[in-house]
Amino acid sequence: MTLAGFMARNALRNKRRSFLTIASVALSLFLLCTLRTGLREMTNPASMEESACRVAVRHKVSIANVLPAKQRDLIKRVAGVASVMPLTWYGGVYIDEKHFFSRFAVDPAEAFRQFGEMKISPEHRDAFIKKKTGCVVGIKTMERFHFKMGDRIELAGDVWPCDVALEIVGTYRGGIDETILFFNHKYLDEASGNRGVVGCWWVLADRVDSVPRIIAEINRMFRNSDAEVLAESERAFQMGFVSMLGNVTLLIGSISGVILFTMFLVTASTMAMAIRERFREIAILKAFGFRSSDLAGLIVAESLLLAMAGGVLGCGGAWLMFRLVPIDTMTNGFFPIFEVTPGIMAQGMGIAMALGFFSCLVPAWNALRLSVVDGLKILD
Amino acid sequence: MAIPLKYNLRNLLVRWRTSVATLLGIALVVAVFVMVESLAAGLKHSFVTTGDERNLLMLRKGSTADSNSQIGRMQVDRIRYMAGIARQADGRPLLSAESVILVSLARASSQGEANVLVRGLEPAGLELRPQARLVEGRMFRGGLREVICSRQLGERFSCCQLGRSFRAGKNQFKVVGVFDAGRSAYDSEIWMDVNEARSVFDREFFSSILFRPENEEAAARLKKTIEDDRQLTSRIIREPDYFKEQTMTAGPIKWFGDFLSWIMSIGAVFAVMNTMYATIGRRIREVGTLRVLGFRRREILISFLLESLFLGLIGGVIGCLLALPLNGVATGTINLQTFSEVAFQFRVTPDLLIKGMVFSMFMGVAGGFLPARVAASTPVLQALKSV
């Protein structure tokens, strides 16, 4: 019998206990991966290279305040600005709150130039520019509601005091979020009585280097005007939403800590039980001439084997589950994406390994100190 | 005759290391369960305790919150002198046309900003909300860029404390008073004069109208008249009902808590099973002896079930004790409907503690059932022979 075979047999000699241990480690790691992913999607939204060139401009008082449309020409004149467009959160209700996805009013001619990572065919783009009541819907939302080209979507205004009736003239793929609906800002203007206001300005810089200067200039330009603005990088804008969530980060962080600790307790006590049962055998092995360091290696390896098996099941399970389960529909669009990244899985495996190692330290130490005579005397 | 409980208790003490690990496992699961649920409970509580049954709130039809509702000046004038609205002491209608603005302020503790709801109201608005009392400083005066803030908000945003000031847009606002709205949703707001709010924040529209009808019959009539009027395109809702609608903000938290506790509880059940299997495995000869002494299978099953129930029970008590200090701790998150910060407290209610205990006992029994059955069903001879 090889050493590896001996170890594997030892690990599986009490199948029920091994199963329970592996399962509880797997469950905990599944939870950890889920929490980490949720936290990451909320606090560290994915971003694309293209994002680095974009600047978001909102009202300084808060995001809920609107900006005057006349600012557009002034921003356009700032050196280094390649494109400016309004980006307005329309929100609205499609059928009911359960059918949620993001809806924005934009300038059709600029939108897909600015969001270069969202790929749209030239025909769809032209149709979007030509048809005032047209809209472009992300591929995921198209699939979720089985929309077809030419379908009509009626939205009831909640944030805006007007309803809109749109026709799907195109779809896009790619980018971080493939669920968004874009429609023509001119249509929104008309429907809401031409008040000449927009939600935010979205600005594309010609190069990444000019972004800081453009931000500074736009901020300075409207200082002490009726509508002071806050220009910031698209990334900073996204992070602003994260900060609104409040103590969620702390909450999830501490829960993860508690889970880790519980997991450690449970695994450590199982390992202790498994090893205590074998004190007699260990004494016999010692009597045969196995050295303490060999035996310690065996115990640690066995514990690692169990913990890693749990880790693979837990992290892999989380990865598989969130691939198969449509998490965006289940959470009504709260999480448009929910991806267990390789980084998170690697972290999970690292935790499993550490767990396997530390949880057997005390029992292994006890086993090693055991003298052959004492060990052989144990009956129980 | 039942096996004495002392037998089980002593066993838990003898194998105290395993017992403690299992106990703590259960305790932590219960603690997490109670904590997350108390967060949801606190959030919910702040909404359901807000508002006066007698008051009606008018919003634009289709709007989900007053922060995105718009009501024109003409509409306000039409409602103000409708028959059936109660009067103030000086004879003016008990009605407050209000304007709600979200202002982005820096948090006290962490870095980052959050939207805070600024409510411009008329003097009648204060009379309509007897829940809120001024506890420090004085009332705001119009035209002086003065505001009053809730005390709870002051804990989360240092610029909302008495004597401090904050900038919003071009203007500097001074906090001249602090109010306490009895842990209701108004405790997340800043109040100022409505006319000043509209001019400073350049608002053509009002957001909502709060008023009190003379009686129930007048309330029904006013609701009908206003909602039937095509030109007004408004909806009328009782003030408490409006805030109850917003409890959906607590939904995701509750969902999260349930998800978390279910998965963690399965893990804990596994841990209990492991412990019970091990302890029974080592005592299988004792079980045989008990059978020889004349105890029946059912009594042995019950005895071991009780033992794991103890584990659950003690774990549950520790878990509840761990969660208890959280009661009353202030926290805040975003109100998904108004998009503004809502400040509230964790609420560890007796109800939640009972739920936590039931949960822990369930974990104990669920984890102990299979091992106890093994113990009860092992034949006497086999049990006695085993080493």
Quickly describe the structure.
The complex is a heterodimer of chains A (380) and B (387). Helix content of chain A is 54%, strand content 15%.
What can you see in these coordinates?
The complex is a heterodimer of chains A (380) and B (387). Chain A contains 16 helices and eleven strands. The mean pLDDT of chain A is 88. Chain A folds into two domains: 3-45 and 246-377, no CATH class; 66-226, no CATH class. In chain A, 54% of the residues lie in helices and 15% in strands. With 380 residues, chain A is an alpha+beta fold. In chain A, helix 2 runs antiparallel to helix 10 (248-276), helix 10 packs parallel to helix 14 and helix 10 (248-276) packs parallel to helix 15 (361-369). In chain B, 50% of the residues lie in helices and 19% in strands. Chain B contains 13 helices and twelve strands. In chain B, strand 2 (95-106) and strand 3 form a beta hairpin. In chain B, helix 2 runs antiparallel to helix 9, helix 2 (16-48) crosses helix 11 (297-323) and helix 9 runs parallel beside helix 12 (350-377). In chain B, 52% of the residues are buried. The chains are: A alpha+beta (380), B alpha+beta (387). At the A-B interface, helix 2, helix 9 and helix 10 of A face helix 2, strand 2, strand 3, helix 9 and strand 11 of B.
Class derived from helix and strand content of chain A: alpha+beta
User: What low-confidence regions of chain A span 5 or more consecutive residues with pLDDT below 50?
Assistant: none
The helix content of chain A, as a percent range, equals 40-55%
State the end-to-end CA separation of chain B: 28 Å
Characterize the overall form of chain B: elongated
